Protein: O-methyltransferase
Amino acid sequence: MICASFIVDCTRLLFKSRTSSALFGYSKQHYCAYCQHKYRYPVMTTQDDREQQLQQINRIIHGYTTSRTLMTAIQLSIFTHIAQGNHSVEQVAQAADASPRAVNKLLDALVGMEFLKKDKPNHYELLPCSARFLVKSSPEYVGAMHENDDHWIAWSNLNKVVKTGQPCMTVDQEKKAEEFFPHLVRSLHQMSLGRANRLAEKLLEGKQDVALEVIDIACGSGVWSIPLAEKCSNVRVTAQDFPKVLELTKSYAQHHGVDQQFNYLPGDLKTVDLGQQKYDIAILGNIVHSEGEKSSKILFQKLAKALKPQGRVVVIDMFPNNDRTGPAYPLIFALNMLVNTTQGDTFTFEEYRQWFIEANIPHVFMLEVVPDFSVIIAQVS
Structure:
């Protein structure tokens, strides 16, 4: 075990000798006087390198301040109040039932973060981004997922979760899922809709005149299947999810004018009967990461039976590289699964490929939809 004094003393030694060692691009081996642990100074070639590294650490460490500021503004409906004609500190504070002094500081911070503008003293206006995405009455509102503190609380317990290996809450269980996901999918629908439209174009290439049966597993709002129905009247969608979530799916299908092309299959994806050779396309839209390896393997085996010959599984998710050295986002999102699910994770292409082969879905490849957005396609013979 490395003693605490080792960490303190080694840090002190590092700063004391940085001009004679670290800044010249080499490192010397030393021993901690307390525990005789070997260590090396990190190599820093210039003072500018050192400052850039410290600034990077500082930006990441204090990243919570900007996220908490924006979440608080969403929870207090600050952008909505301004959209309704409340432009002064006093008006916003009264509408939000909050302290004028505190609201003043919050509004100024939002100006600095470029979500509001202040062209004259004590007069705040929305910027296009906040007007479009952060006002509750906007059809493109994305704040719903942060109207409560579920995400914040989960991540605040990361240290405890890492020690115990147990999540602080399990959103993959039906009761919690039916509370949690309606807030989440209202935001994700708008965030995903552009990419979903581009994916639909790819999936429908050469098939516009073909009748297609699609199943959307754990469909949420139906964001990944609705564009298929919009772009092709020959598409029929079976939307599968928990019963209360499907109520939300129905509202989105109606809003997009495709409800006549939708059927609904309520239940838990772990137990629901998917039938035999019924579907041309099965969509797994950001669901494998919350299910985890064991459940997903079983699901792939069920899909192998449920798909028609030449049927395809489409996996929309976040994929780290095969060495799990990057990109950063899917690796960090694996921590999000750690704090929110019992078995969730993010998985590499090679892991998916092997699972599909084991499920007798042998043709597996990555399809680039647009730059920085690729999906996995697995096709039965």
